[in-house]
Amino acid sequence: MTSWAVDSAFAVFAVAAVVTGFLVFRTDSMVRASFWLLASFVNVGLILVLLNARFLGFSVVLMMAGEMSVMAIFMVMLMMNPAGLNPMTMVHQHRASVAAGVTAFLALAGVGIVVDFPDDPARQDPAQVTAELGVEELGDSMLVFQTAGAALLATMIGGIAVTSRRGRYGTADEGSVPPPLDPPDAESAL
Amino acid sequence: MTLDALLVVAAALVGIGVYGALSQQSFVMIMMGIELIINGALLAAVALWAYSSGGSPKGQMLGVVILTVMAVEAALGFAVMTNVYRVRKADITEKTKRLRG
Fold first, then answer.
1. What phi, psi does A171 have (nearest 5°)?
2. What's this model's pTM, rounded to 2 decimal places?
């Protein structure tokens, strides 16, 4: 791709990522909010593809398509304002939040512009970049990669443990019930 | 497409995320703010990989780790939110003030 094509594509994706990210908190329907967030993630993923990080970029798109679909279901369950027909503002400490957001943006953008990062760009061959990442994942950084996998497994187990209705000490609705002191009768247990 | 422009976009995403996470009352909307913050962090990390790391694949590994963090945050956030709703019948932060004396 020529340079001006990359630049204009980046401009489109960047504006779209920020605008859709902002619309997440401006729409009246929480389902629409989750799809605006998906749009923001897809645009960031496309920027990553422009940066030649194709594996990461498409991973973001794939992961977020799934995650935001699940998120939309949760949104339906927890929605305050069905179909977004009425205006909805559910915010607290609004002014302080705006100040915090603007401060975070100005501080981070200031750091990004002022600091002189080393000018050492990556190679421009996407296939080679992806191949290098694959070798890295199963080579020097295998411990990192495997740890990420183990963390995801622990998350699955933890998520099920936290959400299961019936736990070790009774149902979640009744709160914690201590186990009986006498062991259950072995005969009746059979 | 320059490093400065990419970092400004990432900062904007983080700023919007901070605003959302602090201002929203609903638990799911707070989670969306946190997701936006991680989104900005991912963009910044990959931008720095692309422009000032010499193309070391370890920079992309950081991106993989950030993706993992995003998945863990979403999954455990949903799990905790489900449990809070079940125990307290609360879906916004204002309903969980019971510990306040």
1. -80, 155
2. 0.87
A-B contacts (CB, under 8 Å): 252
| Residues of B in Cβ contact (< 8 Å) with A42 | none
Closest CA to A110 of B46, B47, B10: B10
Asked whether B55 and A109 are in contact (CB, 8 A), the reply is no
Asked if B41 and B9 count as a contact pair (C-beta separation under 8 A), the reply is no
Among the partner residues B49, B61, B68, nearest to A152 by beta-carbon distance = B68
Domains by residue range for chain B, with CATH: 3-89 (1.10.287.3510)
The helix (run of H) or strand (run of E) holding residue A168 is none
- Cβ distance of A112 and B7 shorter than 8 Å: yes
This model of the complex carries an ipTM of 0.90
Take residue B15 and report the two structure tokens written for it.
């700023």
Using a CB-CB cut-off of 8 Å, the residues of chain B touching A156 are 75
Using one digit for the tens of pLDDT, what is the confidence trace for A119-151? 888 877 888 889 999 999 999 899 999 999 999
CA–CA separation, A87 vs A62, rounded Å? 32
For B36, residues 6+ apart whose C-beta sits below 8 A from its C-beta are A21, A24, A37, A40, B13, B14, B16, B17, B20
Question: What is the distance in angstroms between the Cα of B15 and the nearest Cα belonging to chain A?
Answer: 4
Interchain pair B72, A175: CB under 8 A: no
B6-15 pLDDT tens trace: 999 999 999 9
CB-based contact A144 B64, cutoff 8 Å:
yes
Q: Which chain B positions have a beta carbon within 8 Å of A157's beta carbon?
A: none
- Do A25 and B60 make contact, defined as CB atoms within 8 angstroms? no
Helices (H), chain A: 3-23, 30-50, 54-78, 94-114, 126-137, 142-163, 186-189
